[in-house]
Design a protein that fits this description.
The protein has helices at about 5-20, 30-35, 55-70, 120-130, 150-155, 205-210, 245-260, 270-275, 285-290, 310-325, 340-345, 355, 375-390, 420-440, 450-455, 460-470; strands at about 25, 50, 75, 95, 105-110, 115, 135, 170-175, 180-185, 220-230, 230, 235-245, 265-270, 300-305, 360-370, 395-400, 405-415. By secondary structure, the protein is of the alpha+beta class. It folds into three domains: about 5-100, Uridine Diphospho-n-acetylenolpyruvylglucosamine Reductase, domain 2, CATH 3.30.43; about 105-230, Uridine Diphospho-n-acetylenolpyruvylglucosamine Reductase, domain 3 (2-Layer Sandwich), CATH 3.30.465; about 235-440, FAD-linked oxidases, C-terminal domain (Vanillyl-alcohol Oxidase, Chain A, domain 3). The chain has a six-stranded antiparallel β-sheet with strand order 12-14-13-16-17-15, sandwiched between helices. The protein has a five-stranded antiparallel β-sheet with strand order 5-6-10-8-9. The chain has a four-stranded mixed β-sheet with strand order 1-2-4-3. A hairpin with a 4-residue loop joins strand 5 (about 105-110) and strand 6 (about 115). Bound molecules: flavin-adenine dinucleotide (FAD). Keywords: FAD, Flavoprotein, Oxidoreductase. One of its GO terms (biological process) is lactate catabolic process.
Length: about 500
């Protein structure tokens, strides 16, 4: 009988992997394993048995073959920056670190498309694109060290750019859990000239891609993808609207969005505004805490991009529209002198949660989508809940990226790892998530404990999902336990 991931089988796996990809690319030093055992989240750490670092598609295929043969679970990792336990391995599991696969393979400047490997970070893609007069779309809350490919795969439709939508990844190469290489969309047809064309009307592209969106490494390894880049404009300006009345937030956001002018748009509550628009000085956390009470309840921030004359017209149109509803277009945030400079820099090279975690040492996130109208209600409920359990409302940050249809919301609770807060926050997490679900929050990416919350309410959907998992990954070697809280299929 073969027992999943026993020490003997893992030893054999290490031996085979070392022969296939070189022993310097199979890491077993305890200090290095420890680094991969945890993330910024509240998820309990788990030490991997080894880290394998393949450098090519063929090497990944070999690793997958051995994992199947020896029933060793593997967890793909591209940037390693996700923060809800997505890359924490199961016992005796192996980390498949794809950072060595970090090449931009091709670019079509006229089409604004680049073909990238999973190890390409946002910073790298941004620098590469800028040399060709283009820019990469980066989500403001992520660190620039996140993998562009893995993030685009994971975010749609959680994150969206108000002007460009959420599907930035068009066609891709996937290594299925049995090692089969699959190309989606036009890439599947070598004779077709434009390998990146994504056609929703075709079952070969959109439909196929969706199976791997947000699959958290459970259905295969994405080894390449064509991603959209955008032009660099002559003029880029940042603007702000401050809002103190919850009832006006939806109206303001909608009016600005519906003009279809802003290219990047983010809404912050006062806590996240303080964290976002403050410089990372040694005093960062302390200064932030002092700032929060003096800031407006909400800050709506957006960029306008285009030719000088075009931007001028947009500015006057938006200013007029806002004036009509009693608001002003600002080019700075009162009390935050560097807001403009920081916003323009963050939309290209984001600092992400490592910066915000400096406020109280750590920060946990509840990501969901909801109607923009419901945001203030959910926010108030969360603040009350947090206060009832002895936390300050100054620890509750909210960042929203509005898209055409919904608000994409990240509720962030800052906490301190050194005092007894960790257990308390961990215990509250599920309860808060459940309460917010009742109020209209939808967890479109049910990570970790949220999987239980969501799938227990959608039995039929969950059964079909498990059927897909069983069909594609009969040995259950690909990042087990991510789609469910148990290892059973
Ligand atoms: C507004 C916002 C909110 C966010 N909220 C959260 C959040 O709440 N929790 C969170 O964890 N992240 C969150 N993210 C991060 C994001 O969704 C991705 O998890 C992250 O950007 C992935 O980048 P990474 O390179 O660090 O991936 P990694 O940390 O390396 O991996 C992320 C997940 O994808 C899988 N994976 C990685 N590479 C591949 C690959 N090549 N093929 C197949 N599977 C792969 C991994 O196994 C893992 O499950 C948020 C981002 C934004 C912008």
């Amino acid at each position: 009988m073969v027992v999943r991931g026993t020490i003997m089988l893992v030893d054999k796996f290490i031996d085979l992997a070392s022969k296939a990809i070189g022993d310097t690319n199979v890491i077993t030093y305890p200090k290095e394993l420890e680094k991969y055992s945890r993330d910024h989240s509240l998820v309990k750490p788990g030490i991997p048995s080894c880290i394998v670092r393949p450098g090519s598609v063929e090497e990944v295929q070999e690793i997958i073959e051995y994992a199947n043969k020896l029933l060793v679970p593997i967890t793909p990792l591209s940037g390693g920056t996700n923060n809800l336990g997505g890359t924490i391995p199961v016992p005796n599991g192996v980390i498949l670190d794809l950072k060595r696969m970090n090449r931009v393979l091709d670019i079509d400047v006229r089409a604004g498309m680049a073909s990238i490997q999973p190890g390409v970070t946002f910073e790298q893609l941004q620098e590469y694109a800028s040399k060709h007069g283009l820019r990469a779309l980066t989500p403001v809350e992520l660190p620039k060290t996140s993998s562009a490919l893995s993030t685009y795969l994971d975010l749609a439709p959680l994150y969206g750019w108000v002007y460009y939508g959420e599907e930035i990844l068009t066609t891709m190469t996937v290594l299925l859990p049995d090692g089969t290489l699959l190309k989606t969309g036009q890439q599947a047809f070598p004779q077709i000239k434009w390998p990146y064309v994504h056609s929703h009307a075709s079952p070969f592209a959109g439909l196929m891609n969706y199976i791997w969106y947000q699959s958290q490494g459970t259905l295969g390894v994405v080894a390449q993808g064509w991603v959209k880049l955008k032009p660099i404009h002559e003029v880029v300006e940042a603007f702000f609207v401050t809002v103190n009345d919850d009832n006006d937030l939806y109206k303001i956001a909608r009016e600005i969005m519906w003009m279809r002018y802003p290219r990047d748009m983010v809404i912050f509550n006062n806590v996240d505004a303080a964290l976002f628009f403050e410089d990372e000085t040694p005093n960062y956390g302390k200064k932030t805490a002092e700032l929060i009470p003096s800031l407006p309840k909400w800050v709506v921030a957006f960029t306008l991009r285009g030719r000088k004359e075009g931007v001028d017209i947009m500015v006057s149109d938006i200013a007029e529209k806002l004036q009509g509803i009693g608001y002003k277009l600002l080019d700075e945030v009162p009390g935050m002198p560097k807001a403009k400079e920081i916003f323009l820099s963050e939309v290209n090279y984001p600092s992400g949660w490592p910066k915000y975690s400096k406020y109280r040492g750590a920060r946990t996130i509840l990501p969901f989508i909801c109607s923009l109208k419901d945001v203030p209600i959910i926010h108030q409920a969360l603040k009350k809940f947090i206060e009832k359990h002895g936390f300050s409302t100054n620890y509750v940050g909210v960042t929203i990226t509005p898209t055409d249809r919904v608000g994409v919301v990240a509720c962030n609770v800052a906490f301190n790892r050194e005092i007894q807060e960790v257990d308390k926050i961990r215990n509250l997490y599920y309860e808060v998530a459940e309460e917010m679900l009742r109020l209209g929050a939808f967890y479109s990416r049910p990570y970790g404990i949220l999987a239980k919350l969501m799938y227990s309410r959608a039995q039929n959907y969950y059964e079909v999902l498990m059927k897909i998992k069983r069909t594609l990954d009969p040995n259950n070697i690909m990042n087990p336990r991510r789609l469910t809280l148990t290892e059973d299929l």
